[in-house]
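hey team, just a heads up i'm posting the complex here instead of the shared drive bc the drive is being weird again. everything in one block, sequence lines first with there labels, then the predicted structure for the whole assembly after. its two chains so it's a bit long, scroll down
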Amino acid sequence: MAAKKGKKSAGKTATKAKEPVTKSALALGDDVRPKVVAIMAGVTGQPIAKVGALCLSDLAAPCNLILRGRTASELNAEWPTLMPLFKPTDVACADTADTLSHQVRQRLP
Amino acid sequence: MMSFGSRHRIAEAVAIAALLACAISASAQSAGDFRVVRRADRRALIVLLKLPLRSGDPLNVARFALLDRAGNALLPLKQLSDVTDAGCGTASRREERVCLALADGAPSLIDSHSYVLVLDSIPVLKDGKPAFVGANVYLPVAIVGARVQPLGKSPLYKIEVDYDVDVTNDSSASIELSIGGRRLPIPAPNNTRPGQSLCYNPNALAYICNFDPAVSVRDGEKVTARFVDAGSGNAPAPAVVITAVTYANKDPVGLTQKDQSLYSLSIQGGYSKTTTTSTATLQVMVRDAPFALQSTHFGDNGFIRYTSLSPYLDLLVSTDASTKGYIDPGLQFTGLFIWDSRTHFLNTIAAFITPRAESDKKGTVMNFVPLDIVIRPGLGPLSAHAIPLGGSIQLWPDIGLEQGWTVKGRSVLRPESNDPSRWKGGANLVAKWRAPKNPSRLCRVIGCAGFDISADWQHYKLNDVPSSASTSNFDYGTLSATYKFTEHAGLAFSFNNGNPPPLFVYQRVESLGLAIVY
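-- predicted structure starts here --
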C-alpha cells in the first residue's frame, strides 16, 4: 500500500520540475526527502522546485493548524508504520524538507 | 606494528588535537548538530547527524582523530567508515550516521575514559544539495553516562533519555520513568519496536517514550529515569545513574524537543478614518492556543481527527462614538478531520464551536452565544495554491449557526430580536508573498519579511427580527494588508465594512497602523 502510494507521488513528481538529487544519494536509498518535498509541495500548492530550503510558513499562508495537520496526514499516509505517527502539533511552521525528513527517519520502525 | 603511514597520520592528528586543545572553547561550529554514541562492543564511535550522508559508500576518515583524554593518547581509527549492517545499523539508519571503527590492535574504548573526537568534512545533502558538515568540529566524548533530555512544555508528549552506548537489538535492559517521585507508566503502543527494549529508538539511539495522552509535569518537579533489568537477556542493566532533569516552566525548549505551542494572535492598532471621523482603533484576534482537551486519533490512509480547546477573543474597538465595534470573548473548541489530500478532494473539515459572549464596545447589548458553530471545508487546490511572484493563496468557505440569549440590553432597538438565532456563511481568503531572496538595500534597512493580504466576508441571515426591521440579511467584511518588517511586526492597512453583530449597525473603519502577528 505504502509502496503503491510512493509510486503515485513519485509519478506526480515526474510531471513537475525535479529537485537535484545526486546519484550517490539514490544509491544510499535516501528516498525520504524527495517524498517529503512532494508532500510539502502538494500541501502548500507550490511547485516542487520551489520547496528547496523553504519552511512551511514561507510556502503557504497562513501556516495554521490545518496546514500542519494536512502535512501530518500525508506523511502518515506515505509512511503508515511510523512510530509514533505525526500529529498536527508535531509539524512546525519552521519545518523544512530537511527537518521533516529527519523526523521521518527517526520515526521509521 | 605500526606502518610509517600510520605514524605520520597519528603525528598529524596529534598536531591537530594540540591546536584544538588550545582553542577548545573557540570551537563548536555546531557541536549541537552531532551526537556521539559508543558502539556496544566499544570498538567504534557512532556520530549521529541531522542531515543524510551524500553517499552510502564508506567515508575516508583519515583526517579524523580520536584522543583519549585520560592518557592524552591518540587512538588510531580505521581509514574508512564502517558501512556494514552489523557495524553501523541497517541502510536506512546509516543515512544519518558515520561509524568510526577503531583500528585493529587499538585498545577498546573505556567507559570511564573521556575522549575528544576531531571531525573533518563530511559530505551530506542539505536542502537537497551537496554540502559539508564537520569541518573544524571537535566533539567531547564524555565518560559513559545517560541523561534525561531537557523537557518540552507541559504537558509532555515525549520524554527522551540519551544513553552514550548503542543498545540496538539489546532488550536485556529497559528504563523506568518517574515524575515528582511518582512512577510514570509507559504505554507499550507507540513505544515498542520489534527486538528493542521499551522506548528504545534505534534510529535516534536513545530511549524516546511517547505519551498519548500527554503527561503533566509541574514547575520544580524532577523527571527521573533509571535502568532496570528487562529479564529477557543475560546482560545486567547498565550500572549507570541517569541524570534527572527538573522541569521549569520558564526554561527554553530543549534542543531535542520542538516547541509544540501554537497560537494565532493578531493585534492591530493605529490611526483610523472611521464612519464619521478620524480616530484610533484597536483590533485583536486570539485563537488556536490549545490548553485543554487535546486529542489526536489516527485512522487508515493518513486520516487524522484532532480536537482541542483554546481561548478565543475577537475585538474591534474605536474611539469614534458612532462606530459600535464588538468584543467577543469566549472559548473555542476545534475539531479537525483531515484526509490525505492526494486522494481526497475534500481534504479537511474544520469545525469550530465557540461558546462566547458578544457585545458592542459600550456593552449596550450583550448576548451570550453558547452555540456558535462554523464548518469550514478544505476543497482541493482552494486550500492552498501558488500565485504569481512567489505567493501563496488559500480560500476557505464556511457556513455556521449562532444561537444564544440576550443578557443585557433587551429593550435596545436594533435590527435583531432578543435571543439571537442566525445562520451565517462566507469565505476567508489569505494571500501571502514572502520576502525576496535577494532583498534590495532599502529592504535590508527597513526590514522586509513579506506581504500578507487577508479578507473575510460573512453574510448573516437573522431568524428572528422585530416587525420594524426592514431586512433580515446583513453582511460584514474585513480586509487587511500587512507589510511585514519582521516575521511578526509590520505596517497594516485594514478596512472593515458592514453591519457586524450584535447591533448590526453599519460601520466602516479604515485604519493604518502597527500590526503584531503570530
